[in-house]
Specification:
alpha+beta, 7-stranded mixed sheet
Amino acid sequence: MTSGHDSFALLLAHEYTDRSIAGFGSRALKGVDRERFLALEEANRSVAAEKKLQFHIAKLHYHVNFYHFGSILGRYGVECREEKVAWYTLGGESLGLGDEVKLKFNFLNPAMETQSQFWQKPYGSSDSNGYLGNEGPEKDSVYSRFAIVAWPAVDNVEFTMKFASLGTAFETLRVQRPVDTATLLKFMDLAITKLADIDNLLAERRKLDVWNGSYKFPPLISTATCQVLCQLLQECGNSTLVSVFFSNFFSRVKEKHAVVLDIAKLVRKFAWGVIGKALLEAPICVDWNQDDIYVMQTTLAVVRALERGQAQQDLLSFAVGKAESLPDDRLISSRSLEELWRLVLSDSDDGILSTLSRKFERMNPRLSAPAVEIFSRYLKR
């Protein structure tokens, strides 16, 4: 298979468990599955490097819940559906679940099975429930089957990003270091496109299932993936790509406090005049847990990791702006109040100090007592 050609998937005929695949990988295959896979491996060994395949094991899982159409016998509509693919290496290492996108596999069909035979028992089953209180009858269908999936080895990162997860793809890219600017930009662009596809899919699901809270927020990027990206960006040395990262990826990192040191390294390495605007304008909040308090705390953590300079001043000013917008009682009760005052008093210019001071001057004196105590304690030092 040459570069640019599509992938293929070979559904396994026998049943397997997650435990057996994770424990033995391709060595768990038996019977006709083993014969077919060994034939693929043998053929793969005999071709040139540019035509070799990369193999993975995938568990395809599809769950649909149906509701009954009133009095129409045997008629059901889809209430909710869940599609997911779990990925494994041939050695059995779990690569986690793939991202939630619409996937179309190119299935090989050596046994000439029909579409219904692909998912009949033991690979699929349906259970029906009668009327339960005010609830009408429902039908629950679950389909699950393992497959060998292959794609061109020369395009391994690209196909991993398409079929598996962004995190797995960027980790695969990291292993191939050094990575040049053009290559990193290519995969960041592909990731941005995939994130947009996931956003669109979640929007479709929200319309169909308004009660499901899991569709409410945009897809998140893990701490590990963010750290891998930061490492690649530092080694690549291109400030434009850092701005792309802040504008398109950073807002989706849920546990931002866990990547503070990684962000500080980027700020120290690259010209603040080039990357600063993208960081300050990056939407930080992605769910209800990340309000202005969270933004202020995260920003202060970055400020604390930086040396005095323009970047530190701009970020501190940004944090004070968030503090200024908070309700007085929430700011006073924040665990970051003392750190906010400490950084402003020790590292800020007069403008930042004046902005924060005015916030407390307008407060009810009973609320501002903790701030006065912090201020007095700092002056005594």
